[in-house]
């Protein structure tokens, strides 16, 4: 939607609700840009394949985590890789199919006549055709690995543009949920992080399945008078030796280095470090603690939803039970600027956590 149209209709839209499926207002989705696309299978059913391998096995070994695609998953891969055949301006940079969702990186190499959403819609239409062909096969369940039965809501008219118009005809399912999530490349180095994120997805899923208690979001964790959403090892809060990490922005690099060494020594002695990692010094302490595989409680200003996961740099720490992320404020689809008042509040929360 163009920004002027958005502003014109906003007074009638009611309160804005957080959503990861909303397009960016004012962005030209036909322009030359790189996108990270995510979409999920309707009902989050694992129809695209199955995870195999061991979370503790390193990449390159036969038992390393990976996704074995089902026949339906192979068709989905074929449909995605065929997007440039129908839209020559689009280049597929990467694709990672998971059992119940997909991540992909698309490069719109030049201005398109149509917006990106039309290419995604065409891909979904092709996937729906493949899905329906499996639905009408008696060997459907055995062909796509053992999966839960297909629920009734998967056979509804979710998309009015592709739903059958004749009420006498049987209604069939749509493979993917309505809409999709996109991220638009904006920062230097972000593309490399995207490639790493896609490549590491099977390993992260294997780790979550092996240690589900450390990756499940909890929304009712109360410490003092503050309620947090939490991901990670909540038992770190029970440790008596919690230590707040707070570094002034005015510190020199030499002073920060000294603080990092002193803090690491205390962590090795049993202290549980607590910090929002706002200043440069606090961030250096946090990185050093993670690299040393020591426990840490991290306060983040960015809230969680039910599908939230720790960043890829925190996965190992979470799986090993040495990391806890606390979010005191609700989830927002877009990150809001961090104000001075928010920084002061986070530091006070860190101090309060150490007192309890």
Q: Which structural class fits the helix and strand makeup?
A: alpha/beta
**Radius of gyration, whole Å:** 23 Å
Average pLDDT confidence is 85
- Taken as a percent bin, the fraction of beta residues is 15-25%
Unreliable parts: 16-20, 145-171
Query: How many β-strands, per DSSP?
Result: 12
Main sheet characteristics: 6 strands, mixed
Can you give the helix content as a percent range? 25-40%
What form results from the Cα inertia axes? Answer: globular
Oligomer: single chain
The span between the termini is 48 Å
Biggest sheet strand line-up? 7-8-12-11-10-9
The number of helical runs is 11
The string of secondary-structure elements, in order, is HEEEHHEEHHEHHEEEHEHEHEH
Description:
This protein is α/β, with parallel strands linked by helices. It is 32% helix and 18% strand. It contains 11 helices and 12 strands. It has helices at 3-9, 71-81, 83-86, 116-135, 140-143, 190-199, 201-210, 253-268, 280-291, 315-319, 340-355, and strands spanning 34-40, 49-52, 66-69, 90-97, 101-108, 181-184, 218-223, 226-232, 242-244, 272-275, 296-299, 323-327. It has a 6-stranded mixed beta sheet, with helices on both faces. A 4-stranded antiparallel beta sheet has the order 4-5-1-6, with helices on both faces. α2 (71-81) runs antiparallel to α4 (116-135) and α8 packs parallel to α9. The protein is globular, with a radius of gyration of 23 Å. The model is unreliable at 16-20 and 145-171 (pLDDT under 50).
């Amino acid at each position: 939607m163009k920004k002027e149209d958005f502003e014109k209709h906003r007074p009638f839209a009611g309160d804005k609700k957080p959503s990861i499926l909303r397009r960016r207002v004012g962005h030209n989705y036909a322009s030359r840009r790189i996108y990270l696309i995510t979409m999920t299978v309707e009902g989050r059913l694992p129809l695209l394949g199955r995870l195999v391998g061991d979370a503790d096995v390193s990449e390159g070994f036969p038992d390393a985590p990976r996704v074995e695609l089902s026949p339906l998953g192979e068709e989905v891969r074929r449909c995605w890789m065929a997007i440039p055949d129908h839209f020559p301006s689009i280049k597929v940079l990467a694709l990672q199919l998971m059992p119940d969702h997909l991540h992909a990186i698309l490069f719109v190499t030049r201005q398109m006549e149509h917006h990106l959403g039309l290419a995604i819609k065409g891909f979904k239409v092709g996937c729906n055709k493949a899905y329906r062909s499996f639905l009408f096969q008696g060997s459907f369940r055995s062909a796509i690995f053992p999966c839960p039965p297909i629920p009734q809501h998967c056979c509804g008219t979710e998309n009015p543009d592709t739903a059958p118009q004749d009420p006498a005809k049987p209604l069939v399912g749509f493979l993917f949920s309505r809409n999709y999530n996109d991220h638009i490349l904006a920062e230097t180095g972000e593309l490399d992080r995207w490639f790493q994120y896609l490549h590491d997805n099977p390993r992260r899923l294997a780790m979550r399945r092996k240690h589900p208690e450390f990756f499940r979001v909890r929304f009712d964790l109360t410490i003092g008078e503050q309620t947090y959403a939490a991901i990670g090892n909540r038992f770190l809060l029970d440790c008596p030796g919690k230590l707040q990490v707070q570094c002034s922005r005015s510190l020199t690099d030499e002073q920060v280095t000294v603080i990092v060494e002193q803090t690491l020594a205390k962590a090795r002695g049993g202290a549980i470090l607590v910090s929002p990692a706002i200043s440069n010094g606090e961030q250096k302490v946090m990185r050093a603690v993670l690299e040393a595989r020591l426990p840490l409680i991290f306060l983040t200003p960015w809230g969680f939803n039910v599908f939230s996961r720790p960043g890829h740099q925190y996965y190992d720490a979470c799986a090993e039970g040495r990391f806890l992320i606390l979010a005191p404020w609700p989830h927002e689809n877009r990150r809001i600027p961090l104000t001075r008042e928010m920084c002061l509040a986070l530091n006070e929360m860190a101090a309060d956590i150490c007192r309890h």
